[in-house]
Amino acid sequence: MSSNEELQNTNTEERFDFKKEEKSAFQTEKGLTEETVRVISEDKGEPEWMLKRRLRALEQFQEMPMPTDWPGQPDLSEVDVAEIVPYIRPDVDVRAGVDDWTELPDEIKDTFDKLGIPEAEKNALSGVGAQYESEVVYQNMQERWEEKGVIFCNMDEAVREHEEIVKEHFMTKCVPPSDNKFAALHGAVWSGGSFVYVPEDVTVEMPVQAYFRMNSEGMGQFEHTLIVAEDGAEVHYIEGCSAPKYSAFNLHCGGVEVFVGEDAHVQYSTVQNWSKNTYNLNTKRALCEADGRMEWISGSMGSKATMLYPSTVLKGPRASDNHITIAFAGEGQNIDTGAKVYHNAPETKSTIESKSISKDGGRTNYRGLVHIADGAENSSTSVECDALMFDNESTSDTMPYMEINESKVDVAHEATVGKIGDEDVFYLQSRGLDDDDAKQMIVSGFIEPITEELPIEYAVELNRLVELEMEGSLG
Amino acid sequence: MSGTQLPANLSTEMVREISERREEPEWLLEARLDALEALDDLELPDVIKTPGRRWTNLEALDFGSLVDPLNQADETERTSDEGVEVLTFAEAIEAHPDLVESSFGSTIDPTENYLTALSAALFTTGTVVYVPEGVDAEDVTVRAEMNSRSLFSHTLVIAEKSSSVTILESIESGGSTDAESRYFSNLVEIDAGENAYVQYGSLQNLAEDTYHYALKRADVGTYGTVNWIEGNLGSRLTRSDVESELEGDSAETKIVGAFFGHADQHFDVNARVWHHGENTTADLVTRGVLDDEARSVYEGVQDVGRDAWNTSSYQRENTLMLSDESEADASPKLIIHNHDTEASHSATVGQVDQEDLFYMISRSIGRTQARNMLVEGFFVPVLDEIAVDEFREDLRELIAARLR
What we know:
- The structure holds 2 protein chains of 2 kinds.
- By secondary structure, chain A is of the alpha/beta class.
- Chain A has 17 helices and 20 strands.
- Chain A has helices spanning 3-9, 12-28, 34-43, 48-63, 81-84, 92-97, 106-115, 119-125, 132-148, 155-161, 163-169, 181-189, 211-217, 422-430, 435-446, 448-451, 456-471, and strands at 151-154, 194-198, 208-209, 224-229, 234-241, 251-252, 255-260, 265-272, 279-281, 283-288, 293-300, 305-308, 311-314, 320-329, 334-343, 349-358, 363-372, 379-389, 395-404, 409-419.
- In chain A, strands 1, 2, 4, 6, 7, 9, 10, 12, 13, 15, 17 and 19 form a 12-stranded mixed β-sheet that branches. In chain A, strands 3-5-8-11-14-16-18-20 form an 8-stranded parallel β-sheet.
- Chain A is globular.
- Residues 1-29, 87-101, 120-139 and 212-220 of chain A have low confidence and may be disordered.
- By secondary structure, chain B is of the alpha/beta class.
- Chain B has one domain.
- Helices cover 22% and strands 42% of the residues of chain B.
- Chain B has helices at 12-21, 26-38, 63-66, 89-95, 97-103, 114-122, 354-362, 367-378, 380-383, 389-402, and strands at 49-50, 53-54, 74-79, 85-88, 127-131, 136-146, 150-159, 164-173, 182-192, 197-205, 210-220, 225-232, 237-246, 252-261, 266-275, 281-290, 295-304, 311-321, 327-336, 341-350.
- In chain B, a hairpin with a 2-residue loop joins strand 1 and strand 2 (53-54).
- Chain A binds chain B through residues 69, 71-72, 369, 371, 374, 387, 389-420, and chain B through 48-51, 306-307, 309, 319, 321-351.
- Chain B: This is Fe-S cluster assembly protein SufD.
- Chain B: Belongs to the iron-sulfur cluster assembly SufBD family.
């Protein structure tokens, strides 16, 4: 029986019965099954096509092997999807688990304290209730946007309210579930996230920030973000977990899809600081039409292991892409991140600027792919990686891959690794700073290319997070 | 091993015959038989994979039709300086049995991969260069001609304490064979002792029906230096790995590569260095030109170990593309475990500089001649690294001959 027939045979009544049965079984049974996926979809009241996509993604997930043979990749042997996945459908109990500030782990509470975040905001950041100030801001902004036809809402809501746009763009040509095992997993069990739609020639002047929403969903671990910027549109989206996210689960597997129309401009900024038991296995991609411009600004601070390579497909002539990434790995952390750019049209441009800091046995890796297709004449790309290391317990790798099929191009890759300059430290000490402050200042300077791209409050928070990492006081 | 065609008639008898004909000692026969036996479980050398593709398709090699173990033939001319012994492998076993036994397989494990094992089991030619303590030798040449469908070669260079030697090796094809394609395998092991200096240059200009595998690796002792020069012009497909293990403190290495591909040639060239000792220095320089539908794959690895304090490590790779149908893939890798390191790498791919071309044309140099001059100029930084005039001239001439 084909999966189509199977779906058609499942009438509503049967499915409801099914669901009741499954709900109890679901809480005890481990492993990701078709029933799990049906229950999720059912609960969300999703249209049939979305359920079909989920089930197809599930099939693909089950067919694909775990990535194991990437040179130097983080160890994922602990990631037992069979153990983790049942929990993605949060039952009331699980929600309650994060519902109370006092039940948060101390390390997370300390972090909030040290960041100087007020109590009300702490509650919001920890995933509890509404962050009322933000809500107000959100409401105000929402009205302004709505006048211009901008849509910004929760992804689950978008499936219901803006079905046609979502149906066209959701995990079809940008991040198909077949992209990788975790994209497939995401496609099967995704929940929550943001939907941003900017109509033709509309500029959203303020950055669209989404951290408060993602957290309130409580299921942010598999959130999906879909941004559609029509021709000539402009938007800056900030994925905000500028503080550690408390998570009952140890797998974060999100999906981000960005559609950059002709002459449109999208900036996507992330400052993430996952708790240090989290495996962060995300898939982020942008499709960029002629003259479109995509910018990825990412700060990866937390997690036990991260495998994340935001990618851009430059589809139309003169499309361009900039990546600025910074990774910080402390004790026990393995941050494997980079960028992927496909130059598929003439006169496309990309720049990648990657900075990493490793300390106390932490491990950072830049893994990047630049592909220049045959016919992408007069394209240029420049990749620059700088790594700063504190000790010989730490590791810093750079693994760029360049596939060049076109001769009329300009491709350059450059990477440097070094320790913190003793002379620089000495100079700052001679000006009265102590050793720690001197190093802190050097690191702040090192990451400046990122911070200057961010709105001031994010830049400040990023700096404070780095400070905390430097003190070794996180996790 | 899955997917690889073993030579149909490959057997222990055959390996015994190779060894007996050469009157080899028991240990070498055993080493050959061990390698043969290991073949079943060994994989081909790793090739770079990116989403959806393997950069070099070694699986396609049909060893069944490429390898003819009992009919290997070469003509090799060896010249040497005074004080240094340059011997055929067979002669060396006779003259220095213990030295050869202890050196064979000490830098390259014969069972490292499928191709090294095949080579260790079947090799019939090779050279042993023995430079005793304190001896300086400036001019050792090994010029080989391959005269059979397949040829397996194994070379050992033993440079004792405070010795120095410059070795030039070249390989080309002799008269054609009845086979459609040929296979040449070349393993080179260098053991450079304390304060020893070895420059090892290779020039490969095999006929373009030849598949070519080379693994060259050096162990470099304290204060030792091993400089490699690897020039690749010939062959249908070349997979070449040139590697230095900087074992001793203050050891140094330079790996200089040049390739020039045309027609549908495929070069998979790799330069790798491991910094184990303290205060070690490495410099990796590769320049390549691609024309027609030629394709290059480059991997450079700088691996700095946890105890490799005060390392300096540099890598540059530049590829010039003369044709739209060519393809240049590169992956320069830095693996750094010690923060007391100064390391950098860079890679570029591009075409002949249009402004330079315009300038020269405006000075009434014809377009083709101008382009050729720029290509020749592109190789200058690599040619400059070659200490021996004769070798530099050979490479320059081969490059010039390839330019139309």
